[in-house]
Amino acid sequence: MLNKLRPVLARVLEPAGRALARTPLTPNEITVIGTVGVSAGALVFFPTGHLFIGTLICAIFVLADMLDGALARIKGTSGKFGAFLDSTLDRVADAAIFGGLASYLALHPSGHNRVLAAVALFCLVAGALVSYAKARAEGLGLRCDVGIAERPERMVIGLTAAGLSGLGVPYVLPVGLWLLAVASAVTFGQRVLAVRRAAATQAAGGDPDDWS
Known about the structure:
The protein is mainly alpha-helical.
């Protein structure tokens, strides 16, 4: 759903992309820097109970990571490897965020809740399955752009819940993680059904985009 905002974000990020275009930095380097920053923020601060500062650092580097596409368009260096690297390192960042939250919930005294730690790990696994389902479908030539909780939604829900919890807002982290777990599971189911319909339509000699 939030992917519909990408054209707007692209225009907002255009000035920053033009500024970066005057530096030696490449889009792939921006991707790596963003992933390292998110991973460091999540794995250093979340397990020690510093949820707000960890969320702030993650959010800054998530925004920085979004500049790789703008920079690639301006420099004219968009390519398949860049898309592959961006998608692959997104999984690394996701693992750091939800792994960090799971560590906090399992080990830190202020967040000790093993059930919620398991929910955080479920969010990680379900998110990976959602992304894999789309990638595998597209590899088979089938569309899979459906779902109520794509990666932008998952990042917003997860980081917002963590940040507000770090500010002392009660119950927001459990509510956010349970909501995210349900939304991720529903999205995975939506994608499996969408691919099933598209594959059946294709096998029948119809248009794979016609899922009705």
